[in-house]
Write a structure and sequence with these properties.
Oligomer: single chain
Number of helices: 4
Largest sheet: 6 strands, mixed, barrel
Distance between the termini: 82 Å
Shape: elongated
Structural class: alpha+beta
CATH superfamily of the largest domain: Ribosomal Protein L25, Chain P
Order of helices and strands: EHEEHEEEEHEEEEEEH
CATH class of the largest domain: Mainly Beta
CATH topology of the largest domain: Ribosomal Protein L25, Chain P
CATH architecture of the largest domain: Beta Barrel
Helix content: 10-25%
């Protein structure tokens, strides 16, 4: 999995007012937690976070946090972005949750599926429909792929690729059902207007020529 590095500071105050003050200064309120771990309230530069993400999906990204406490001591913590809250109206980040990663403990993530190629069925008059772009998998953090690629160039009209068609390395468990559809190529739908036009054309062709 892709790993980014971020610097963060512990924050002594939490709550709506304190978080609002942090965001006004360009900082993102966050929390670090995990199995058997006491939650730690953090703050980090929003600009740095967005720069490291570079437009990619945040949830599921591995993050190596360099956390500086109030005494000035720095500790490194490996985590995954568990949840990212966004203010869609202001187009700003609101809060981030970082979940601790243990390299010897299995982790469950939603993996992005990238579709490769141009289905031949589209050239035959069909249309491609992407039904699912993520698949849920589980495995040790060191063995989890960043994404998976699926070649769809050989799909004809009526063909479908399922979760079971994905191939993973040993040690990766797929949690979605094998019969869950990812992508299909279907026949192009005829619009109601086209159907009416065809019916009218057929009707005119069946009219008898007037006698002289």
């Amino acid at each position: 999995m892709k790993t980014i590095e971020l610097q963060a500071n512990t924050r002594p105050h939490s709550g709506t007012r304190a978080s609002r003050a942090l965001r006004a200064q360009g900082y993102l309120p966050a929390v670090f937690y995990g199995f058997g771990v006491e939650p730690i309230s953090l703050s980090l530069r929003e600009e740095d976070f967005l720069k490291e993400l570079a437009g990619e999906r945040a949830e599921g990204t591995f993050v190596k946090l360099s956390v500086r406490d109030e005494a000035g001591d720095v500790s490194e913590k490996l985590s995954i972005v568990k949840q990212l809250q966004v203010d869609t109206l202001k187009r700003r980040l609101v809060h981030a949750d970082f979940y601790e990663i243990k390299m010897d403990r299995e982790l469950t993530v939603d993996l992005q599926v990238h579709f490769k190629g141009h289905p031949r069925g589209v050239e035959e008059g069909g249309e491609v429909q992407h039904l699912k772009r993520e698949v849920r998998i589980s495995g040790l953090p060191g063995s989890l792929p960043e994404s998976i690629e699926l070649d769809i160039s050989e799909l004809g009209i009526g063909d479908t690729l399922m979760v079971g068609d994905l191939v993973f390395d040993e040690g990766i468990q797929v949690l979605d059902g094998e019969d869950v559809a990812l992508v299909t190529v279907s026949a192009m739908r005829v619009t109601a207007e086209e159907e009416v036009a065809e019916e009218e054309a057929e009707g005119e062709g069946q009219k008898e020529e007037p006698e002289e």
